[in-house]
Amino acid sequence: MDATECGLSAVGDRLLLAQFSRPRADRRTRLAVLGDPHVATRSRETYRVFHRTEQRLRTAIDDCNERDVDLVVFPGDLTKDGELWNYDRVDVLLEELERPFVATPGNHDLQKRQDEHDCPSASAFADRYASGSLPGRYEMDEIDLFVLDSASGPDGAYTETHRGLVSSDQIAWLDEELEGTTAPIVCCHHNLMPIVNDPLCQSHPWRTFTMRRRERLRSVLEKHDVELVLSGHHHLPAVVRHGETRQLIAPALASYPQVYCLLEIDEDGTSVWLVSVAGEAGRSEAYELAEAGPTFRRTLLGITEDALEDSPLLSEPPLIVDSPSVGAAKPVR
Q: How many other CB atoms are there within 10 angstroms of residue 97's CB atom?
């Protein structure tokens, strides 16, 4: 599939990625999920398209303002590698966001052992981007969003690994907070459900994307009938289902196909749209950089192409459309 034939031609074009029967809400609620911006003010190119990251985040912010979303969620990796100068630029861009927002740190946002620069602590990150506290709960009428930190624990950032872990105290907090909720959504950076099966998901580099000891969190979600989990980290659009729980992996703003996820929740369920933040030239550039990248990244590019071509990936109940533009995965406004 050619990079300009993915069904997204211009900034603001939408592609239906999935339709879930739940969560539902009597009042229409819009949730924007901006995955992995990786803002980099002193870097260029690579498959992450570093030299366009500021532009892509600014475009996403402008689009969220125009669509009047209820909450903007950043599931991690706001910066290239947690550099203070890149955080400063993120803050300047976020000043233009007119909607409430929350962010959780990604593996690139907090200190790693090999870093030669200082990064903010997990508590400083929460002060800056999560109303001072992670985990946190955000209420939007019937919808309750629970934001977890899978990049750090009670002793600080996971400096030795890019894999994630939701600490025991966060899981206990979530177990208590979920009591009595009717339409909960849980968000963290790392993937609760791998996109490939055992034993492949246990091998490098696939295991980098899944959290450790994830069964503990999954059991709490199943106990409380949590039907939607939001994550990032993988740099591709994907839907993974385990039992009644669905995991939406938001693609990276930084890299191909340069989109963010818009969730529209109403009485019929949840529609997940990919919203373009680049035109054809920008998307072609991102595609070519990904195609020239490492072998594994080319594998992810192929998975991304398949996802765009096969969208919607999941329809509950089976989607019935009058317009061929949706069924054929063409852009709509």
A: 19
Q: What distance in Å separates the CA atoms of residue 333 and residue 12, rounded to the nearest whole number?
A: 7
Domain spans of the chain, in order of start: 3-327
Assessment of whether the complete model's pTM goes beyond 0.85: yes
pLDDT in tens, 194-237: 999 889 998 999 999 989 999 999 999 999 999 999 999 999 99
Helix (H) or strand (E) holding 152: strand 152-153
The predicted-structure confidence for 321-332, as pLDDT tens digits, reads as follows 433 333 333 333
Distance CA 28, CA 160 (A): 42
- The CATH-assigned architecture of domain 3-327 is 4-Layer Sandwich (3.60)
Burial 253-271 (b: 16+ CB within 10 A, else e): bbbbbbbbbbbbbeeebbb
Cα–Cα nearest to 242, from 277, 267, 214: 214
- Say how far apart CA 47 and CA 39 lie, in whole Å: 14
Local structure of 200: helix, strand or coil: helix
* 52: number of Cβ within 10 Å: 23
CB atoms within 10 A of CB 95: 9
pLDDT digit string (tens) for 144-169? 999 999 999 999 999 999 999 999 99
